Amino acid sequence: MVGMLSDAARRVVFAPLDDSWGRGEAVARRLAGAIAMGLIGDGEQLPSEQELALSMNVSTITLRDALSDLRAKGLVETRRGRTGGSFVRASPVALAELSRQRLAEVGVSELRDLGDVHMAVAGTAAQLAAQRASATEIVRLRSLAVKVGELQDEAELHRIDGRFFIEVAAAAQSVRLTKQEIGLQAELAPLSWCLTGDDPARRSRLAADREAVAEAIAGRDSRLARELTEVQLAEDTQVLIAQHIELTRRRQRG
Amino acid sequence: MIGEVIERIFESVTEVRDLMVECHEAARAEGAELTDTTLGLLAPDILELLQREGELAVGMGLIVEPGLLPGHPLRLEWWQLEAAREEPQRLEVDLHPESLGFYDYAAAKWFAVPRQTRERHIVGPYVDVHGTDRYLLTLTVPVEVDGQFLGVAGADVPITRFETLVLHHLGDSTGEIVVVNSEDRVVFSTSAEWITGSLLSGPAARAAARAHALPRLPWLLLSS
């Protein structure tokens, strides 16, 4: 269906956590990812603590830890009273800071690993999309790539870029690749701000990159579609790693 | 037989359509209009159809013509069954046109085609990244009263359910069959050479001994 992923993506985001350590942190990370991805919009009320805890399969104590972490990051605001609850605050400043914090937390090998998995999933999706995308799907991919070049708002730009990858996986006609891509985007979204920053050259390069993939898919060149995707993601990973190193060194000095 | 299976699904969709038509006529009899509230009252009836034994659909409901309901420019009443949850869920989507996540249903083929042609339509198979994250066929019929278009009624059917049923019906009758949609995508096939979801065009399609359009369906049946 034409439109935006919503229910399916939310289900991935609010799915039970499977790791056993650092659950509070993991919950906070997952929710921050959903906010960065735009799945939970600015001003939107989160489900109740009980509902969220149940849906993510964590205790309410763990969930409260996570919420207080998000409050500290300025991503969630809790209001008391009858109309109270937890509300999302997705301000550009908070999101940019989230991106820097997240990039500082992870290690080089984690960033490399995330990039490796993304390459495997998105590369295969692009290859299959070149074989299987319908004319309608190709039109959609092209228009998303063009939109990446047009958007001024940093958050929207990366949301649309993430959406491009998800739609490529859907055009590959694979439910599993699509779910994998949604999960990866939730992890990548908080980092993506560091990918272009305010640099117009990097932004237009990103748009040109995605357009090239869309054209390879339109041209039914599955090998090229895969290759371009892999090369682009390897470059993205390198940019993130370079920034991570820079950030970590600066924080050390400070 | 592919026709029979499809007609069976369309019968359910027609029942969903009739719910909206009745609702509209009941409102009109009282000199009132269809509203957000009255449409919401159809939920139990839609659920009853969806949960009926032997029903192939995993999602069913109504999608309203933009601007029809006072105060609610866009409106869906769509319910779906999910493997992981026991209770059916109401599909919640973003209906704010200015939002980046806007669910622009009026542009979707399953809405736009019946609206334009006033004929039933089938879309898919496609990966539904907006609803149930399944690989689906979506069948829709226009809802019309005295020439006025009110929206569409529809059903989502997982391609696997459709395929299994058709294969059962076919039994061991001979010959290879491939069904493709208007985008040349394989909808159904008795051969592992032409897999559901792949595109079949050009020489492969022409190599088929016979090709004929399925009655009232946007599909072509190719056979050896």
Automatic annotation (TrEMBL), chain B:
Transmembrane segments: none annotated. It is found in: Cell membrane. It is a multi-pass membrane protein. Gene3D superfamilies: PAS domain. Residues 98-204 form the Cache domain. Its main location: membrane. Keywords: Cell membrane, Membrane, Transmembrane, Transmembrane helix. InterPro entries: dCache_1. It holds the Pfam family dCache_1. This is Cache domain-containing protein. It comes from Actinomadura alba. The lineage of its organism: Bacteria, Bacillati, Actinomycetota, Actinomycetes, Streptosporangiales.
